[in-house]
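Listing S7. Sequence submitted for prediction.
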Amino acid sequence: MKRRDFIVLISGAAAAWPLAARAQQPAMPVIGFMSPRGPEDSANLLGAFRRGLAEGGFVEGQNVAIEFRWAHGQYDRLPAMAADLVSRRVSVITAVGGDPSPLAAKRATSTIPIVFGMGSDPVSAGLIESFNRPGGNVTGATLWTNLMEPKRLGLLRELAPGAPLIGVLLNPNFPPAALQLQQIEQAARGVGQQITVARASTDEELDAAFATLIKERVDALLVAGDPYFDTRRERIIGFAARQRLPAIYHFREFAVAGGLLSYGIDLPDIYRQYGIYTAKILKGARPADLPVWQPTRFETVINLKTAKALGLKISDNLLSLADEVIE
């Protein structure tokens, strides 16, 4: 072989080495992230989710990609979103933000691992077999948010003692809505509290619900836990402020945004847990072997600035129960 031909051969082989090396590298895993909420009201939650991923060794854009799907409170969009993620053969689906998301994901696939986040009992919903041994392709965390309505009613009554009529804002299209209403009605009967229910699942219905609450002259407002209401947080808080209604909500984000009182879980910490579980699955853990995570701490947050604007004095007992007071 001539020296010139040998140099050309070696040069060509060297140029091919990077291509061969790249061809042997595994494809970057893709997380399909779906939620009935919207990105504009979930920025802090996404930050917590990414922190959980990072704790497990995954950084978006470096060694993992994320495909986001947001329903913006329109639950009927979720089945198509889940089907789309399945067709893209994502490595894992993180279906969070409330019950409609994991239910849609579960119906879409029995093989792709799913990390769920929901406020109800996942066993009763048919997602898992048990909390310690979920079985199948699903695991995640339950927030118990939708089972806290009686507790919120009690806190609201302490916030507005003697309120003759409490309004309840409820989304009838939310899967746990019937259970939420049953619990609220039972708790209200137990203490002789009159309530009136206004239902909304669209913006038009929300306007009509506001009109109903005004017409009924409610004295206080309980906003039932629901992802659609999360996406309309500013509108609901604004309504309560204009009508000078003491109101209670299910997440701290409402109190931070100007709502008077919230009672629920530490939501960013839950999203961090979603990230940790998603990372475990990307590393090879089986959902069937990962126990469903449950919160052990619930937080009461009071916005004193809002209380002052309403001319409302918060009782010493309620202040003593608060985990956080916003001044």
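Caption to Listing S7: primary sequence and predicted structure tokens for the chain studied. The chain has two domains: 30-144+266-289, 146-264+299-326. Residues 146-264+299-326 form a domain with the Rossmann fold fold (CATH 3.40.50.2300).
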